[in-house]
Specification:
CATH architecture of the largest domain: Orthogonal Bundle
Strand order of the largest sheet: 1-4-3-2
Helix content: 25-40%
Strand content: 15-25%
Distance between the termini: 25 Å
Shape: globular
Largest sheet: 4 strands, mixed
Number of strands: 14
Length: about 500
Protein backbone atom coordinates (compact mmCIF):
# COMPACT_ATOMS: atom_id res chain seq x y z
CA UNK A 1 0.00 0.00 0.00
CA UNK A 2 1.39 3.38 -1.02
CA UNK A 3 0.45 6.62 0.76
CA UNK A 4 0.72 10.01 -0.94
CA UNK A 5 0.37 13.28 0.98
CA UNK A 6 -1.86 15.75 -0.87
CA UNK A 7 -2.56 19.37 0.03
CA UNK A 8 -6.30 19.91 0.38
CA UNK A 9 -6.24 22.58 -2.34
CA UNK A 10 -5.06 19.98 -4.86
CA UNK A 11 -7.13 17.02 -3.65
CA UNK A 12 -9.95 17.41 -6.18
CA UNK A 13 -7.50 17.80 -9.07
CA UNK A 14 -5.54 14.71 -8.01
CA UNK A 15 -8.71 12.64 -7.66
CA UNK A 16 -10.03 13.96 -10.98
CA UNK A 17 -6.81 12.81 -12.66
CA UNK A 18 -6.87 9.34 -11.06
CA UNK A 19 -10.57 8.77 -11.59
CA UNK A 20 -10.76 9.90 -15.22
CA UNK A 21 -7.50 8.51 -16.59
CA UNK A 22 -8.70 5.12 -17.90
CA UNK A 23 -5.11 4.01 -18.46
CA UNK A 24 -4.70 3.88 -14.69
CA UNK A 25 -7.70 1.51 -14.33
CA UNK A 26 -8.37 2.79 -10.81
CA UNK A 27 -11.43 2.47 -8.58
CA UNK A 28 -12.35 4.55 -5.54
CA UNK A 29 -12.90 1.99 -2.75
CA UNK A 30 -13.09 3.76 0.61
CA UNK A 31 -12.63 6.98 2.53
CA UNK A 32 -12.19 7.71 6.22
CA UNK A 33 -11.04 10.41 8.62
CA UNK A 34 -8.78 10.39 11.66
CA UNK A 35 -8.31 12.70 14.62
CA UNK A 36 -4.52 12.86 14.95
CA UNK A 37 -4.42 15.92 17.17
CA UNK A 38 -2.88 13.90 20.03
CA UNK A 39 -0.03 13.15 17.58
CA UNK A 40 0.22 16.87 16.72
CA UNK A 41 -0.95 16.15 13.18
CA UNK A 42 -4.43 17.68 13.28
CA UNK A 43 -7.27 15.98 11.43
CA UNK A 44 -6.68 13.89 8.32
CA UNK A 45 -8.83 12.53 5.52
CA UNK A 46 -7.74 9.38 3.70
CA UNK A 47 -9.03 8.60 0.21
CA UNK A 48 -8.24 5.12 -1.10
CA UNK A 49 -8.02 3.82 -4.68
CA UNK A 50 -7.51 0.31 -6.00
CA UNK A 51 -5.41 -0.05 -9.17
CA UNK A 52 -5.74 -3.16 -11.33
CA UNK A 53 -2.73 -2.94 -13.65
CA UNK A 54 -0.55 -3.54 -11.76
CA UNK A 55 -2.61 -4.45 -8.70
CA UNK A 56 -1.93 -1.96 -5.94
CA UNK A 57 -3.56 0.38 -3.41
CA UNK A 58 -2.97 4.13 -3.29
CA UNK A 59 -4.05 6.17 -0.27
CA UNK A 60 -4.22 9.95 -0.53
CA UNK A 61 -3.58 11.52 2.88
CA UNK A 62 -4.85 15.08 3.37
CA UNK A 63 -4.01 17.03 6.52
CA UNK A 64 -6.56 19.56 7.77
CA UNK A 65 -6.62 22.47 10.19
CA UNK A 66 -7.16 21.61 13.85
CA UNK A 67 -9.59 24.42 14.65
CA UNK A 68 -11.76 24.53 11.51
CA UNK A 69 -11.13 21.33 9.54
CA UNK A 70 -12.48 21.59 5.99
CA UNK A 71 -11.59 20.55 2.44
CA UNK A 72 -13.18 20.67 -1.04
CA UNK A 73 -15.68 17.81 -1.25
CA UNK A 74 -14.54 14.95 -3.48
CA UNK A 75 -18.10 13.71 -4.04
CA UNK A 76 -18.41 16.61 -6.49
CA UNK A 77 -16.00 14.52 -8.59
CA UNK A 78 -16.94 11.03 -7.39
CA UNK A 79 -20.66 10.78 -6.43
CA UNK A 80 -20.18 7.47 -4.64
CA UNK A 81 -18.18 9.32 -1.95
CA UNK A 82 -21.31 11.20 -0.77
CA UNK A 83 -22.16 8.96 2.18
CA UNK A 84 -18.53 8.87 3.33
CA UNK A 85 -18.31 12.64 3.43
CA UNK A 86 -21.62 13.10 5.23
CA UNK A 87 -20.52 10.49 7.77
CA UNK A 88 -17.16 12.22 8.26
CA UNK A 89 -19.01 15.48 8.87
CA UNK A 90 -21.36 13.85 11.39
CA UNK A 91 -18.71 11.98 13.37
CA UNK A 92 -15.68 14.29 13.16
CA UNK A 93 -17.08 17.76 12.46
CA UNK A 94 -14.94 17.93 9.32
CA UNK A 95 -16.62 19.94 6.55
CA UNK A 96 -16.46 18.76 2.93
CA UNK A 97 -17.20 22.07 1.24
CA UNK A 98 -19.64 22.38 -1.64
CA UNK A 99 -22.19 19.63 -0.92
CA UNK A 100 -25.47 19.25 0.99
CA UNK A 101 -24.61 17.96 4.48
CA UNK A 102 -27.91 16.42 5.57
CA UNK A 103 -27.40 14.25 8.69
CA UNK A 104 -26.57 10.64 7.89
CA UNK A 105 -25.32 8.64 10.88
CA UNK A 106 -26.43 11.11 13.56
CA UNK A 107 -30.11 11.85 13.12
CA UNK A 108 -31.70 15.26 13.49
CA UNK A 109 -32.42 14.74 17.19
CA UNK A 110 -28.69 14.62 18.00
CA UNK A 111 -27.36 17.73 19.76
CA UNK A 112 -24.87 19.18 17.33
CA UNK A 113 -22.09 21.72 17.65
CA UNK A 114 -19.15 20.24 19.56
CA UNK A 115 -20.51 16.73 19.98
CA UNK A 116 -18.54 14.73 17.42
CA UNK A 117 -18.31 11.15 18.72
CA UNK A 118 -15.24 10.03 16.74
CA UNK A 119 -13.03 12.85 17.99
CA UNK A 120 -10.45 11.74 20.54
CA UNK A 121 -11.71 14.20 23.16
CA UNK A 122 -15.24 12.74 23.06
CA UNK A 123 -15.51 9.99 25.67
CA UNK A 124 -17.51 6.94 24.70
CA UNK A 125 -19.59 7.11 27.92
CA UNK A 126 -20.65 10.72 27.42
CA UNK A 127 -24.43 10.95 28.03
CA UNK A 128 -26.19 12.67 25.17
CA UNK A 129 -29.67 14.18 25.58
CA UNK A 130 -32.02 13.70 22.66
CA UNK A 131 -33.72 16.80 21.29
CA UNK A 132 -37.37 16.84 20.27
CA UNK A 133 -36.84 17.24 16.53
CA UNK A 134 -39.25 15.32 14.28
CA UNK A 135 -37.70 13.35 11.45
CA UNK A 136 -38.67 14.50 8.00
CA UNK A 137 -37.72 13.19 4.59
CA UNK A 138 -37.01 16.63 3.16
CA UNK A 139 -36.68 15.38 -0.42
CA UNK A 140 -40.11 13.72 -0.56
CA UNK A 141 -42.55 15.58 -2.84
CA UNK A 142 -45.95 16.72 -1.61
CA UNK A 143 -48.94 17.30 -3.91
CA UNK A 144 -52.57 16.39 -4.34
CA UNK A 145 -52.98 12.73 -5.27
CA UNK A 146 -49.66 11.72 -3.77
CA UNK A 147 -49.40 9.42 -0.77
CA UNK A 148 -46.48 8.89 1.57
CA UNK A 149 -46.17 5.39 3.01
CA UNK A 150 -43.82 4.80 5.93
CA UNK A 151 -42.31 1.34 6.45
CA UNK A 152 -40.49 1.04 9.76
CA UNK A 153 -38.28 1.92 11.44
CA UNK A 154 -39.67 -0.88 13.61
CA UNK A 155 -40.59 -3.82 11.39
CA UNK A 156 -42.86 -6.81 11.82
CA UNK A 157 -40.08 -9.29 11.06
CA UNK A 158 -36.99 -10.02 13.15
CA UNK A 159 -34.82 -7.48 11.39
CA UNK A 160 -33.03 -4.35 12.49
CA UNK A 161 -34.64 -0.90 12.28
CA UNK A 162 -34.66 1.14 9.11
CA UNK A 163 -37.15 3.77 7.99
CA UNK A 164 -38.23 3.24 4.37
CA UNK A 165 -40.46 5.96 2.88
CA UNK A 166 -42.45 5.53 -0.34
CA UNK A 167 -44.10 8.37 -2.20
CA UNK A 168 -46.71 6.97 -4.58
CA UNK A 169 -49.33 8.02 -7.08
CA UNK A 170 -51.79 5.17 -6.96
CA UNK A 171 -49.54 2.10 -6.91
CA UNK A 172 -46.72 3.66 -8.91
CA UNK A 173 -43.60 4.51 -6.88
CA UNK A 174 -42.67 8.11 -7.58
CA UNK A 175 -40.01 8.55 -4.91
CA UNK A 176 -38.34 6.27 -2.38
CA UNK A 177 -35.78 6.90 0.34
CA UNK A 178 -34.27 5.11 3.33
CA UNK A 179 -33.06 6.34 6.70
CA UNK A 180 -30.70 3.94 8.48
CA UNK A 181 -28.32 4.15 11.47
CA UNK A 182 -31.01 3.76 14.16
CA UNK A 183 -28.89 1.28 16.15
CA UNK A 184 -25.39 2.47 15.35
CA UNK A 185 -23.16 0.36 17.63
CA UNK A 186 -20.13 2.64 17.76
CA UNK A 187 -17.78 -0.31 17.26
CA UNK A 188 -15.06 1.87 15.75
CA UNK A 189 -15.10 4.10 18.84
CA UNK A 190 -15.16 1.07 21.12
CA UNK A 191 -12.02 -0.24 19.43
CA UNK A 192 -9.88 2.79 20.29
CA UNK A 193 -7.11 1.76 22.67
CA UNK A 194 -8.01 -1.93 22.40
CA UNK A 195 -5.47 -4.67 21.72
CA UNK A 196 -5.44 -6.50 18.40
CA UNK A 197 -7.20 -9.52 19.90
CA UNK A 198 -9.88 -7.37 21.55
CA UNK A 199 -10.54 -5.53 18.29
CA UNK A 200 -10.67 -8.83 16.37
CA UNK A 201 -13.53 -9.91 18.62
CA UNK A 202 -15.34 -6.70 17.68
CA UNK A 203 -14.65 -7.34 13.98
CA UNK A 204 -16.30 -10.75 14.25
CA UNK A 205 -19.42 -9.08 15.66
CA UNK A 206 -19.88 -6.30 13.10
CA UNK A 207 -22.35 -8.57 11.32
CA UNK A 208 -23.72 -12.09 11.67
CA UNK A 209 -24.14 -12.75 7.95
CA UNK A 210 -20.50 -12.12 7.00
CA UNK A 211 -18.64 -12.36 10.30
CA UNK A 212 -15.87 -14.53 8.85
CA UNK A 213 -15.29 -12.15 5.94
CA UNK A 214 -15.01 -9.28 8.44
CA UNK A 215 -12.52 -11.12 10.65
CA UNK A 216 -10.50 -12.15 7.58
CA UNK A 217 -10.28 -8.56 6.30
CA UNK A 218 -9.22 -7.40 9.77
CA UNK A 219 -6.53 -10.10 9.95
CA UNK A 220 -5.34 -9.27 6.44
CA UNK A 221 -4.80 -5.64 7.45
CA UNK A 222 -2.62 -6.76 10.36
CA UNK A 223 -0.77 -9.31 8.21
CA UNK A 224 -0.08 -6.72 5.51
CA UNK A 225 1.30 -4.36 8.14
CA UNK A 226 3.66 -6.97 9.56
CA UNK A 227 4.40 -8.54 6.14
CA UNK A 228 3.28 -11.84 7.62
CA UNK A 229 2.63 -14.66 5.15
CA UNK A 230 0.22 -17.07 6.81
CA UNK A 231 0.83 -20.85 6.54
CA UNK A 232 -0.46 -22.50 3.37
CA UNK A 233 -2.77 -24.85 5.29
CA UNK A 234 -4.33 -21.88 7.10
CA UNK A 235 -4.82 -20.09 3.77
CA UNK A 236 -6.68 -23.09 2.32
CA UNK A 237 -8.93 -23.39 5.36
CA UNK A 238 -9.67 -19.66 5.34
CA UNK A 239 -10.73 -19.86 1.71
CA UNK A 240 -12.93 -22.88 2.43
CA UNK A 241 -14.65 -21.00 5.26
CA UNK A 242 -15.15 -17.90 3.12
CA UNK A 243 -16.86 -19.98 0.41
CA UNK A 244 -19.06 -21.80 2.94
CA UNK A 245 -20.12 -18.41 4.31
CA UNK A 246 -20.87 -17.26 0.75
CA UNK A 247 -23.19 -20.25 0.17
CA UNK A 248 -24.96 -19.69 3.49
CA UNK A 249 -25.49 -15.99 2.80
CA UNK A 250 -26.70 -16.52 -0.77
CA UNK A 251 -29.20 -19.14 0.39
CA UNK A 252 -30.56 -16.69 2.96
CA UNK A 253 -30.93 -14.09 0.20
CA UNK A 254 -32.61 -16.57 -2.16
CA UNK A 255 -35.04 -17.60 0.57
CA UNK A 256 -35.91 -13.93 1.15
CA UNK A 257 -36.39 -13.29 -2.57
CA UNK A 258 -38.77 -16.23 -2.88
CA UNK A 259 -40.80 -15.11 0.13
CA UNK A 260 -41.00 -11.49 -1.09
CA UNK A 261 -42.03 -12.72 -4.54
CA UNK A 262 -44.98 -14.71 -3.17
CA UNK A 263 -43.32 -18.11 -3.54
CA UNK A 264 -43.15 -19.14 0.11
CA UNK A 265 -42.67 -22.82 -0.73
CA UNK A 266 -39.40 -22.05 -2.52
CA UNK A 267 -38.35 -19.75 0.32
CA UNK A 268 -38.86 -22.42 2.98
CA UNK A 269 -36.81 -24.95 1.00
CA UNK A 270 -33.97 -22.45 0.50
CA UNK A 271 -33.97 -21.88 4.27
CA UNK A 272 -33.85 -25.65 4.79
CA UNK A 273 -30.80 -25.89 2.52
CA UNK A 274 -29.12 -23.07 4.39
CA UNK A 275 -29.64 -24.88 7.67
CA UNK A 276 -27.77 -27.87 6.21
CA UNK A 277 -24.79 -25.61 5.50
CA UNK A 278 -25.00 -23.93 8.90
CA UNK A 279 -24.86 -27.31 10.65
CA UNK A 280 -21.88 -28.32 8.53
CA UNK A 281 -20.14 -25.06 9.50
CA UNK A 282 -20.80 -25.75 13.18
CA UNK A 283 -19.56 -29.32 12.90
CA UNK A 284 -16.20 -28.38 11.40
CA UNK A 285 -15.51 -25.11 13.24
CA UNK A 286 -17.52 -25.25 16.48
CA UNK A 287 -19.49 -22.09 15.66
CA UNK A 288 -22.33 -21.47 13.21
CA UNK A 289 -20.84 -18.07 12.31
CA UNK A 290 -17.11 -18.98 12.25
CA UNK A 291 -16.34 -16.86 15.30
CA UNK A 292 -13.20 -17.67 17.30
CA UNK A 293 -11.40 -19.23 14.31
CA UNK A 294 -9.32 -16.46 12.70
CA UNK A 295 -6.20 -14.89 14.15
CA UNK A 296 -3.64 -12.52 12.60
CA UNK A 297 -1.05 -14.85 11.14
CA UNK A 298 -3.43 -17.75 10.49
CA UNK A 299 -5.96 -19.67 12.59
CA UNK A 300 -6.56 -20.26 16.29
CA UNK A 301 -7.48 -23.90 15.72
CA UNK A 302 -7.13 -26.50 13.00
CA UNK A 303 -9.77 -28.49 11.15
CA UNK A 304 -8.93 -32.18 11.09
CA UNK A 305 -8.48 -34.05 7.82
CA UNK A 306 -11.30 -36.37 8.88
CA UNK A 307 -13.71 -33.44 9.15
CA UNK A 308 -12.52 -32.09 5.79
CA UNK A 309 -13.31 -35.46 4.17
CA UNK A 310 -16.74 -35.35 5.78
CA UNK A 311 -17.21 -31.81 4.43
CA UNK A 312 -16.35 -33.02 0.93
CA UNK A 313 -19.08 -35.68 1.14
CA UNK A 314 -21.59 -33.15 2.49
CA UNK A 315 -20.85 -30.66 -0.29
CA UNK A 316 -21.29 -33.25 -3.04
CA UNK A 317 -24.62 -34.31 -1.51
CA UNK A 318 -25.67 -30.69 -1.10
CA UNK A 319 -25.10 -29.94 -4.79
CA UNK A 320 -27.78 -32.45 -5.82
CA UNK A 321 -30.26 -30.97 -3.34
CA UNK A 322 -29.54 -27.45 -4.52
CA UNK A 323 -30.01 -28.49 -8.14
CA UNK A 324 -33.47 -29.81 -7.25
CA UNK A 325 -34.29 -26.48 -5.59
CA UNK A 326 -33.13 -24.53 -8.65
CA UNK A 327 -35.41 -26.58 -10.92
CA UNK A 328 -38.32 -25.94 -8.56
CA UNK A 329 -37.79 -22.18 -8.55
CA UNK A 330 -36.52 -21.40 -12.04
CA UNK A 331 -39.38 -23.31 -13.68
CA UNK A 332 -42.07 -21.37 -11.84
CA UNK A 333 -43.31 -18.93 -14.49
CA UNK A 334 -45.46 -16.81 -12.18
CA UNK A 335 -42.51 -16.26 -9.81
CA UNK A 336 -40.09 -15.46 -12.63
CA UNK A 337 -42.61 -12.99 -14.01
CA UNK A 338 -42.47 -11.13 -10.68
CA UNK A 339 -38.67 -10.93 -10.92
CA UNK A 340 -38.13 -10.08 -14.57
CA UNK A 341 -37.74 -6.35 -15.17
CA UNK A 342 -38.35 -5.50 -11.51
CA UNK A 343 -35.97 -3.07 -9.82
CA UNK A 344 -33.65 -2.68 -12.80
CA UNK A 345 -30.38 -0.86 -12.16
CA UNK A 346 -28.37 0.08 -15.25
CA UNK A 347 -24.63 -0.41 -15.49
CA UNK A 348 -24.11 3.34 -15.64
CA UNK A 349 -26.15 3.86 -12.46
CA UNK A 350 -24.28 1.06 -10.69
CA UNK A 351 -20.90 2.56 -11.62
CA UNK A 352 -21.93 6.06 -10.51
CA UNK A 353 -23.17 4.79 -7.13
CA UNK A 354 -20.18 2.48 -6.61
CA UNK A 355 -22.30 -0.69 -6.36
CA UNK A 356 -20.37 -3.85 -5.44
CA UNK A 357 -20.89 -7.60 -5.20
CA UNK A 358 -23.79 -9.56 -6.75
CA UNK A 359 -25.89 -6.44 -7.52
CA UNK A 360 -22.96 -4.95 -9.44
CA UNK A 361 -22.34 -8.15 -11.42
CA UNK A 362 -26.09 -8.39 -12.13
CA UNK A 363 -25.80 -4.94 -13.75
CA UNK A 364 -22.90 -5.92 -16.00
CA UNK A 365 -19.92 -4.85 -13.84
CA UNK A 366 -17.29 -7.58 -14.13
CA UNK A 367 -15.66 -7.07 -10.74
CA UNK A 368 -14.79 -9.47 -7.93
CA UNK A 369 -11.99 -8.87 -5.43
CA UNK A 370 -11.21 -12.61 -5.31
CA UNK A 371 -9.91 -12.21 -8.85
CA UNK A 372 -9.06 -8.51 -9.12
CA UNK A 373 -7.13 -8.18 -5.84
CA UNK A 374 -6.53 -11.83 -5.23
CA UNK A 375 -5.79 -13.17 -1.73
CA UNK A 376 -5.55 -16.45 0.18
CA UNK A 377 -5.62 -19.43 -2.23
CA UNK A 378 -7.78 -17.68 -4.84
CA UNK A 379 -4.46 -17.06 -6.62
CA UNK A 380 -4.38 -20.77 -7.45
CA UNK A 381 -8.12 -21.52 -7.51
CA UNK A 382 -9.52 -18.55 -9.39
CA UNK A 383 -13.33 -18.38 -9.32
CA UNK A 384 -15.27 -17.99 -12.55
CA UNK A 385 -17.07 -14.63 -12.48
CA UNK A 386 -20.56 -14.43 -13.99
CA UNK A 387 -22.26 -11.20 -15.03
CA UNK A 388 -25.66 -10.24 -16.44
CA UNK A 389 -26.72 -7.06 -18.21
CA UNK A 390 -30.37 -6.73 -17.14
CA UNK A 391 -29.67 -5.46 -13.62
CA UNK A 392 -33.13 -6.55 -12.40
CA UNK A 393 -34.29 -8.76 -9.54
CA UNK A 394 -34.09 -11.83 -11.79
CA UNK A 395 -30.45 -11.12 -12.67
CA UNK A 396 -29.59 -10.64 -8.99
CA UNK A 397 -31.25 -13.99 -8.26
CA UNK A 398 -29.41 -15.81 -11.05
CA UNK A 399 -26.07 -14.33 -9.96
CA UNK A 400 -26.47 -15.90 -6.53
CA UNK A 401 -27.46 -19.27 -7.99
CA UNK A 402 -24.43 -19.23 -10.32
CA UNK A 403 -22.12 -18.27 -7.47
CA UNK A 404 -23.36 -21.08 -5.24
CA UNK A 405 -22.49 -23.59 -7.97
CA UNK A 406 -19.08 -21.96 -8.40
CA UNK A 407 -18.48 -22.05 -4.64
CA UNK A 408 -19.35 -25.76 -4.59
CA UNK A 409 -16.74 -26.45 -7.28
CA UNK A 410 -14.16 -24.32 -5.49
CA UNK A 411 -14.81 -26.18 -2.24
CA UNK A 412 -14.42 -29.59 -3.85
CA UNK A 413 -11.06 -28.58 -5.34
CA UNK A 414 -9.83 -26.86 -2.18
CA UNK A 415 -10.80 -29.63 0.24
CA UNK A 416 -9.02 -32.27 -1.82
CA UNK A 417 -5.86 -30.14 -1.99
CA UNK A 418 -5.50 -28.92 1.62
CA UNK A 419 -1.82 -29.47 2.51
CA UNK A 420 -0.52 -30.59 5.89
CA UNK A 421 1.43 -28.26 8.13
CA UNK A 422 1.02 -25.67 10.84
CA UNK A 423 -1.73 -23.03 10.90
CA UNK A 424 -0.21 -19.97 12.58
CA UNK A 425 2.75 -17.65 12.07
CA UNK A 426 3.23 -15.02 14.77
CA UNK A 427 5.09 -11.87 13.71
CA UNK A 428 5.90 -9.27 16.40
CA UNK A 429 5.10 -5.58 15.89
CA UNK A 430 8.09 -3.26 15.84
CA UNK A 431 7.06 0.30 14.97
CA UNK A 432 8.29 3.66 16.20
CA UNK A 433 5.13 5.55 15.13
CA UNK A 434 1.51 4.68 14.21
CA UNK A 435 1.15 2.68 10.98
CA UNK A 436 -1.85 2.29 8.66
CA UNK A 437 -2.93 -0.73 6.65
CA UNK A 438 -5.92 -2.06 4.70
CA UNK A 439 -7.54 -5.49 4.33
CA UNK A 440 -9.96 -6.27 1.48
CA UNK A 441 -12.21 -9.33 1.13
CA UNK A 442 -15.01 -10.20 -1.30
CA UNK A 443 -17.78 -11.16 1.10
CA UNK A 444 -20.99 -12.77 -0.12
CA UNK A 445 -22.56 -9.31 -0.40
CA UNK A 446 -19.53 -7.72 -2.08
CA UNK A 447 -16.19 -6.23 -1.19
CA UNK A 448 -15.65 -5.11 2.38
CA UNK A 449 -12.68 -3.11 3.58
CA UNK A 450 -11.04 -2.76 6.98
CA UNK A 451 -8.69 0.21 7.43
CA UNK A 452 -6.46 0.16 10.52
CA UNK A 453 -4.07 2.52 12.26
CA UNK A 454 -1.95 0.76 14.91
CA UNK A 455 0.18 2.41 17.59
CA UNK A 456 3.72 1.25 18.51
CA UNK A 457 2.13 -0.27 21.66
CA UNK A 458 0.08 -2.59 19.41
CA UNK A 459 -3.17 -0.79 20.21
CA UNK A 460 -5.91 0.40 17.85
CA UNK A 461 -5.66 4.14 17.16
CA UNK A 462 -8.25 4.19 14.36
CA UNK A 463 -10.30 1.46 12.72
CA UNK A 464 -12.73 2.02 9.87
CA UNK A 465 -15.05 -0.61 8.39
CA UNK A 466 -16.60 -0.20 4.96
CA UNK A 467 -19.05 -2.99 4.20
CA UNK A 468 -20.61 -3.95 0.89
CA UNK A 469 -24.06 -2.99 2.16
CA UNK A 470 -22.81 0.52 2.94
CA UNK A 471 -22.14 0.95 -0.79
CA UNK A 472 -25.27 -0.81 -2.03
CA UNK A 473 -28.07 0.85 -0.04
CA UNK A 474 -28.25 3.80 -2.42
CA UNK A 475 -28.43 1.33 -5.31
CA UNK A 476 -31.43 -0.36 -3.73
CA UNK A 477 -33.09 3.05 -3.34
CA UNK A 478 -32.45 3.86 -7.00
CA UNK A 479 -33.69 0.45 -8.18
CA UNK A 480 -36.92 0.79 -6.16
CA UNK A 481 -37.80 3.93 -8.14
CA UNK A 482 -37.11 2.26 -11.50
CA UNK A 483 -40.67 2.24 -12.90
CA UNK A 484 -41.96 -0.05 -10.14
CA UNK A 485 -45.25 -0.35 -8.30
CA UNK A 486 -45.58 -0.40 -4.53
CA UNK A 487 -45.99 -4.22 -4.21
CA UNK A 488 -42.61 -4.58 -5.94
CA UNK A 489 -40.89 -2.65 -3.12
CA UNK A 490 -40.26 -5.68 -0.85
CA UNK A 491 -39.07 -7.76 -3.80
CA UNK A 492 -36.54 -5.14 -4.91
CA UNK A 493 -35.41 -4.82 -1.30
CA UNK A 494 -34.85 -8.57 -0.89
CA UNK A 495 -33.13 -8.91 -4.27
CA UNK A 496 -30.43 -6.69 -2.75
CA UNK A 497 -31.05 -8.05 0.79
CA UNK A 498 -28.68 -5.58 2.37
CA UNK A 499 -27.40 -5.75 5.91
CA UNK A 500 -28.39 -3.18 8.52
CA UNK A 501 -25.74 -4.34 11.02
CA UNK A 502 -22.87 -3.78 8.56
CA UNK A 503 -24.01 -0.17 8.17
CA UNK A 504 -24.88 0.42 11.83
CA UNK A 505 -21.36 -0.47 12.85
Amino acid sequence: MKTKNINKEYLQAEIDFIHKDHNLDASFITMFATDERPLNLGFKVYTVFLFKNPTSILTLSTQLDQEEPAYPAISLKIPQANWYEREIHDLFGITPCGIDLDPLVLHRDWHRGKNFPMRKDFHIDTPMPISEVPHEFSNQPHAEGMNQIAVGPIHAGIIEPGHLRFCTIGEKVLKFDAQLFYTHKGIEKMAEGKTIDEALNLAEHVCGMCSYAHSTAFCQAIETLTQNHIPIRASYIRTICLELERISSHLFDLSSICSAGGFGFGGIHAARLREIIMRVIYKITGHRFFRGLNEPGGLKKDISDALLKELLFEIKDFKAKFKDWEKLVMNNDSFLDRLEGTGALTKEQAITLGIVGPPARASGINRDIRRDFTYETYKKYMPKITTYEEGDALARTKIRIDEIYESIELLKNLIQAVPSGHILNRTPFQFSEPQTSIGIVESAKGELIHSLMITPENKIYRWHVRSASYMNWRGMVQATMANNILPDGPLVNKSFNLCYACVDR
